[in-house]
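Are you able to produce any protein sequence you like plus the matching backbone structure tokens because I've never seen that pairing?
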Amino acid sequence: MTILQPAYAQTTFITAVQLTSTEVGLSLVFEAAAESPLQTFVNQGDSNTVVVDIVDAQLQIPEGDSFQQDNPTAGIESITVRSLATNRVQVTIVGQDAIPAVEITQSASNLIFAISPAVSDASIPDSEPPSPDTAESPDAFVVGESAGSDLRLVVTATRTEESLDDLGRSITVIDREQIEQQSIISPDLGDILGTLVPGFGPPNQLNTARGQTLRGREAAVLIDGVPLSTNFRVNRQELRSIDPSAIERIEIIRGPSAIYGGQSTGGVINIITRRPGVDEFIADGQIGLSAPLTNQDGNGGGFGNNFAFSIAGGGEQADFRVSASREQTGSFFDAEGNRIVSESSLSDTTTYNLLGRIGYNINEQQRLDLTVNYFDAQRDTEFIADPATVAINGRQTAQALRIPGLTRDRNPGDRNFLVNLSYSHTELLGSELQAQLYFQETTAIGDFNDGRPGNPPQFFPFLFRSRLEAERWGSRLQIETPLNADGTLNLLWGADYESQENQQITTRFDNASFDNRNTLTPLQEFDFTPPYLLINLGLFTQVDWEASESLFLRGGLRYENISLNVGDYRSVQGRNVQGGSINFDDLVFNASAVYQPIEEISLFASFAQSFSVPEFSRILRLPPVGFSIARDINITQPIKVTEYEIGVRGNWPSVQTSLSGFYNTSDFGSSLVPDANGLLSVQRAPQRIYGIEATVDWQPADQWGLGGTISWSEGENDVNQDGDFVALNSGEIAPLKLTAYLENETLPGWNNRLQVLFVGSRSRGFDAGVENFPIESYVTIDFISSVDIGSGTLQVGIENLFNTQYFPAITQFLGGFDDRLYNGGRGRSLRITYSVTW
């Protein structure tokens, strides 16, 4: 299991804040067991205020990301505790007529503030840590060694709240601070995950998930437990469904998961949205600018900007959060000044995101939550990849062709609308019940293609554009029941149901309108892929057993039933195809064990399965002669993946590390294979994928940290099913990925970070004849700096610090089939933001 830590120190999560009265005033207690003492910095605010910063800490309390009490005792006006974006918890104590007296001590599991309404400046403790002799005093400002045990960080990607110590799987948790930190380099979630998550494909700098598999297979993407993954695989844009500013954390299970059902053969990515506020109104905002720092082609358009705002509040019975953001990216250029013109580029895109969450406490045991998320990203540019490069012999870098005044009827982009209603009951006949009802609508519009004579071959011999539409609704129900009195044996059981309708529509444009006025005027629309309905029903159960203090066992099973329903239709080839229905079902299992021979080391092993279906759209749009839905199950047959994993985790006060190895197989796998024209088709064959992942984080001193990750995997399939396995292509199997970072807290509130990404070479696909060029290695280095200014934080990010010319792995792979896709990676770029909380 991997916990990504802030580089300069391990984050301590404060799990409870308690305020009680004493004979002399108040006792403010923070519950957070830590291996080393929490470091605090104390400053005097105005004439009657004390401000204490607890560094390398974040709140993870039931009340949300803040705590406040007004007039808690005579002489104290208010006490406020809140999380800051700089990995700090800030405590503000306001006296009514004078500066309060504050004494800070720390025990094995608590940080204690003794507060009294004093009148002397001498009551303000020194902000410098005391000498070792002073630290031994129970009344000292900072206490020395803590006898504490590791804080049990809780994740929910397993459907229930689980301590990371108890999970026999490889899991990565990316917290809000890390999301904010990496967003200063790229605000795209795919790029953030590609940088931080072992086993996930490297950043592709595209608005799709091409080349970003998880352990060589497809991952299920969720928002607050609601699945986003559709059956359209290559154009998957689930990670382009929410802005990073609306996210609290991201939990990634690496490897197949039976507990979440279909489309999770590679793992689960669960995006947790920001929580509602408590007790008071809290607002935070961010503004920023971005610009390329490399040579440009003289046509401008490189500057971008962003804005985000969030307000939260609540009381005993209800709470809310509303977040809004706007991001406008400029044009992108590689290190040599070439404009990046891939049709899937993130450049020249304006993105809007609106998130609303409302919670209502029916009583102490029951709660309702309603979440609405709207995401809209549109790309508007006059530049396309020049088709003339395809006619030039040899490999060519994509070149920009400007079409002055290009006018589209609809800009290419993504739109996602999600509504999620959840209900929880923490004490229902001795069990805890959770239920969800959700609706999602997704539209993805591609850019236009010109397939007329004289241009590179396209699917259609005319001007056209494709649009993907998906609509789904579903429900989830789960019940967790303790099976013994001490809570060491628990049963989780429940059911999932979902209905998903998918369709791909092609628009044909008028030739004369485009040739004479550079205007795309629609002539007709027709189904490229006919509408088809997928209905999923999953029944699951799982048992957790804490056999002893050092041994935790888990096992479960899931029954999955998926039906495909298609009406009679006429394919784009002009064939009449008989529709019908077909059902697939199977039983998948999971089992895991975690053993701790000593407190700092965990050994784990797991057996996990998952069940999903191939991308039916590519089968239905070009069916073979005589194809029948109900008859040709050799094409539509589902994918069942079985994975074996072993690993070890180490967690010491200044070193955290993990190492795992996996091997997964599927008797009838599915991969996308380009043909001579670069068009992708589904290839079904037995598959096997295996790999190693490792992480290390080291804090040699309070202000220093360094570490990194390694991901290596390989895979083959048996196309002819004769026992002769051939390497999978590099669109499925990512090359070796190494990451490293060095971070320093130069001064309190000022952090600097260098991070390195190395993507290795891979020639197995080329040697096997499944791709046209081998993948070449490359290295990029980024610089991130943040400093507290006033009540906010200024953050500066420089991507590709040394302006290295390179080609992302996926563009090397795709560019081997079409030069228009062979774009360089972004050259040196600057991004600046200022964030503030009120």
